[in-house]
Amino acid sequence: MVKNGYGAWVREFEAERERRAAVGDPDWGGGALLPAEIVRSIQKFQVGEDGDGSALCGKADRAGDPLYSEAVRLFIAEEQNHARMLKLLLEAGGAGTLDGHWSDAAFVRVRRLLGLRVELLVLMLAEVVALGYYRALRDGAADPLAREVAGRILADEERHVPFHCLRLREGLAVLPRPARRAVTAGWRGLLAGAAALVAVDHGPALRALGVGRGAFVAQALRSSAWMARAMSGGPVPAPADAGARV
User: Fold this and answer.
1) Residue pLDDT, tens place only, 71-83
2) CB under 8 Å, gap of 24 or more: what pairs does 217-224 form?
3) Could you tell me which CATH class the domain 35-240 is placed in?
4) For the chain, which residues make up each domain, given as ranges?
């Protein structure tokens, strides 16, 4: 299997870490005015962003590419930073976090069933759904702190998806073309189901943000179209161009 591009991704993740340190955090001290339905929705996504990533790290290590393993650890650190910012946003709005949520538990159980390829395919379901959610929160929230936090997280997620696409393209390359097409078609079907489930679970929040359930699912499917092509052999954007393609 030919592996390429992970040194560039390591540099991209490291540069983003330095940029975050230079910019600093949002101004938590100003507080946040968050409607109850938005609070409940953010609480659920905060649970999904939180985690140590130990299973993914172990599978990445066993894949045998040190640069990929390093990039995965940097990716996990960004996800943990998302959880931290969402927690601070909730605290700024006078709310706490949840100990857990059934949707996150289900994703985690399925991700850990088999090897790295299955882990990433399931992870990508969550990442694509997150794109639509954080875009809706950034564009539709009335509170400026919520919009800023969502915008920061969305920018990261737009980079994460091409990173995972690169690895999945390599993982799927060992399969015959019909099998690759079947996997990506099945993945898009699962994505439609996952997006519909999230649209129902977060329906009140999405309505408050000006996004209907059907529009949320349709947007997820549009976002997934080029991802499926990338995973099955199409071009994957370089780190510097990643956000423009999602």
Assistant:
1) 999 999 999 999 9
2) 217/192, 219/132, 219/135, 220/128, 220/129, 220/131, 220/132, 220/191, 220/192, 220/195, 221/188, 221/191, 221/192, 221/195, 223/128, 223/131, 223/132, 224/128, 224/187, 224/188, 224/191
3) mainly alpha
4) 35-240
